[in-house]
Specification:
The protein is an alpha/beta fold and 283 residues long. It folds into two domains: 77 residues, ACT domain (Alpha-Beta Plaits, 2-Layer Sandwich), CATH 3.30.70; 194 residues, Formyl transferase, N-terminal domain (Rossmann fold, 3-Layer(aba) Sandwich). The protein contains eight helices and 13 strands.
Length: 283
């Protein structure tokens, strides 16, 4: 995606003329569409669209004003994204650091187009890892007595650092309803299981006890319903009777890293649109 491009995402009730109206406006403003994807959901009668286009001589604000009439006519939920402005990301982690390792490396390698503004943890274990990448580390301890104050500190950090996306990279604390509401649509969690099976603690040990042949991981948006948020990405790995529970854990970590990185990248590229308790993901 070129920094000279803009990305328009929208959803509305499905009706005739949406694609024509969007295309005609962009053509009239001298913009060239370089990528377009759309989907009409017959179950909800909603239409979803992602359009990437060259901005020409326009800035995002000017085009936004030009598009407002079209959006109003179709009663659209819409956003205009400028790839030149890198989203600011805050990563939260507890003691398991494999997903944090992967995200920091991919960011350094240029695979994730964002600014990692900091790492938050309820333990100190990942301090040196964050420091090795030059990323600020914030230790915010959490106990039953301090949970509310700890979450308030996190949300204050989100506001101060103007965070666009919070990534729970194996952060082993359940967020309160208030925190979830404050981060609605901009918090991604990696669940160490192929949802909806084997929820809760020690899922790989549950899977081992049941003799499963596939294990997996699920990345989803955070909602009030624990591990039930709209799913962004999933992946599986094949195992068999020779695997111990510990070997399943190792295989699962590989899948977790891959799934979380994919989900974060899809979100950063504005390819994920919410559709009730599901998502529309434009590859």
């Amino acid at each position: 995606m070129a920094d000279s491009d803009l990305v328009l995402t929208l959803s509305c009730l499905d009706r005739v003329g949406i694609v024509h109206a969007v295309s005609a406006l962009l053509h009239g403003e001298g913009c060239n569409i370089v990528d377009s994807a759309q989907f009409g959901d017959p179950d909800t009668n909603r239409f979803f669209m992602r359009v990437q286009f060259t901005r020409g001589s326009h800035d995002g604000q000017t085009l936004g004003k030009a598009f407002a009439d079209v959006a109003r006519h179709f009663e659209m939920d819409w956003q205009l994204h400028d790839p030149a402005k890198a989203p600011r990301v805050l990563i939260m982690v507890s003691k398991f650091d494999h997903c944090l390792h992967d995200l920091l490396y991919r960011h350094r390698a240029g695979e994730l187009k964002c600014e990692i503004a900091g790492v938050v943890s309820n333990h100190r274990d990942c301090y040196q890892l964050a420091a090795s990448y030059g990323v600020p580390f914030h230790h915010i301890a959490v106990t039953a007595d301090t949970k509310a104050r700890a979450e308030a500190k996190v949300l204050e950090l989100v506001r101060e650092e103007q965070i666009d996306l919070v990534v729970l990279a194996r952060y082993m604390q359940v967020l309160s309803k208030e925190a979830v509401a404050a981060l609605s649509g901009r918090a991604i969690n990696i669940h160490h299981s192929f949802l909806p099976s084997f929820k809760g603690a020690r899922p790989y040990h549950q899977a081992h006890a049941r003799g499963v042949k596939l294990i997996g991981a699920t990345a989803h948006y955070v909602t009030d319903d624990l591990d039930e948020g709209p799913i962004i990405e999933q992946e599986t790995a094949r195992v068999d009777h020779k695997f111990t529970a510990e070997q399943m854990v190792e295989a699962g970590r590989d899948v977790e890293r891959l799934v979380l990185a994919r989900a974060v990248r899809l979100h950063l590229e504005h390819r994920v649109l919410l559709n009730g308790n599901k998502t529309v993901v434009f590859r």
